[in-house]
């Protein structure tokens, strides 16, 4: 028998059941054995009738003292079976189960399972199971798995099929393909059971302890394989013959000339980077910081250090607006150095592109900032030493590999202003080292956030008008470009723009910005806002990342409930960049259901704290635009609940690859096969 064999060979699985199993994704023995219960009912202990508690599920046994049938409606009958254990009495309740009247009589000993409730002074159990006390094959007295059911396949039927598979295959001998992917030394060190024991006890737990042991083993395996796959992909970026770059004597002078002082968190992150650049392995580091924490300078100075060591640096970002901003920031930062910096985007004219290509190939350009245009086939760099991406979650592993291929063994930095919970970072960036900038520059004021109901939205706009009259600027953000129906009209950017321009902001310069506008028009709109020509910018979320207008003091977000907390925090970060007090106004269109979630923004300015709460409320698959894709498709593991197991699995995987980078050892044969099989389907984990 092999795990790859069709599920039809399992005893009791005919053509009809096979089709139904196929309908829920079960085609092979392996699919079946990895179709895990969604929960369990502990029917292993019997409770005395006098100790039953309302709201709990319980197993009971006793003697039938009465049987009653009540007809309430044409299609509804209630069977009530009174049971006593000499200490107390309880009524077992069944709906539309009249066949029970033929089998269960006064004086018989029975056992049952169900949910306890109080009915006046009486105790009742709404029963799902009843059987005679002498029953051989009992559904009681054990821990019962509950499977996700579907039409034509109840949980009980799936349990029978799983049991048949275990009887036919596992207990008759080890099936082909059930080799343990976790090396024996790791299993021993972490007291992990064998895969066979885990599979048997996940489907048919012999005890509570056996179930815990099986669950721990399978959760550990899911995390362990995820990290191993990530590290395997990371090795493509992390060559062991990287160029070592010393810290140039000019670096302290560059830092000294900055118009601000670096925070301790920025210095720590920069120290991490410089240490990596001096090592023999190519750096693969994530710089994660809150909105406005100063990541650009943390990457910009190492880019200069790379150039001062005789190599080229490139920075790739997801949008042209962000590319222009980083280009200007780095140019200003390094204005005292003889470093040539150029910008390359989709809007760069053909003649200028050709010039940039030539200068890159000859080594005349030291630093190149741009968008996806940087990974076009025509790009050739003479000596690429460092590649940087900003807002890393928008680029997949393949795009990063294409960047890395521009040089022999370049160092790699990813930057993200999207704080995510530590547990999620451990999973999502399993192949990377992480530096966190958890400190804002001195002088930055906390943004005051307020939540408004739709009926009070004019109060928010009246406040914004006062800010504009005092010389400040404002953002208004909408979730939609245009409304698909009348209900969403009030939160479409086109409707709100027209309303504001002709209404409360009449006489002030109001501009419209969204993703469908031509690139040149978008740049012109942004330039006018940055230069103070425009008073109010009505926009979609295209302003979410990297826009830096210090005079903007207020942002109003329409339909705030349609955004995740982390995205709202990103949008809020468009203000509060200057010395003036800044404000964020959240306008809630719906009822009170979302108020608790949105009030998290009112109460906190910490992106990391907000991300933790966002994950608890919405789950890890929705944080910061991250979908349950690729490595995140766990069957049992939950990265918000099983952080300690994740940490242990990650540490084991890293130690294993440090000792055997190619997984050539005999003990790693099965693991290598699993990693190689999955690596072929490697997904771009972070996608928009």
Automatic annotation (TrEMBL):
The processes (GO biological process) annotated in the record are: DNA recombination; DNA repair
Q: Where is the Helicase C-terminal domain?
A: 456-621
The keyword Hydrolase is annotated on this UniProt entry: yes
Helicase ATP-binding domain: which residues? Answer: 276-437
In terms of CDD domains, this protein maps to: DEXHc_RecG, RecG_wedge_OBF
Q: What is its EC number?
A: 5.6.2.4
Catalytically driven reaction(s): Couples ATP hydrolysis with the unwinding of duplex DNA by translocating in the 3'-5' direction; ATP + H2O = ADP + phosphate + H(+)
Query: InterPro entries, alphabetically?
Result: ATP-dep_DNA_helicase_RecG, DEAD/DEAH_box_helicase_dom, Helicase_ATP-bd, Helicase_C-like, NA-bd_OB-fold, P-loop_NTPase, RecG/Mfd, RecG_dom3_C
For this UniProt record, give its keywords in alphabetical order, as a comma-separated list. Answer: ATP-binding, DNA damage, DNA recombination, DNA repair, DNA-binding, Helicase, Hydrolase, Isomerase, Nucleotide-binding
Question: PANTHER family recorded for this chain?
Answer: ATP-DEPENDENT DNA HELICASE HOMOLOG RECG, CHLOROPLASTIC
**Which family would the database say this protein is a member of?**
Belongs to the helicase family. RecG subfamily.
Q: Could you tell me what this protein does?
A: Plays a critical role in recombination and DNA repair. Helps process Holliday junction intermediates to mature products by catalyzing branch migration. Has replication fork regression activity, unwinds stalled or blocked replication forks to make a HJ that can be resolved. Has a DNA unwinding activity characteristic of a DNA helicase with 3'-5' polarity.
| Protein name per its UniProtKB record | ATP-dependent DNA helicase RecG
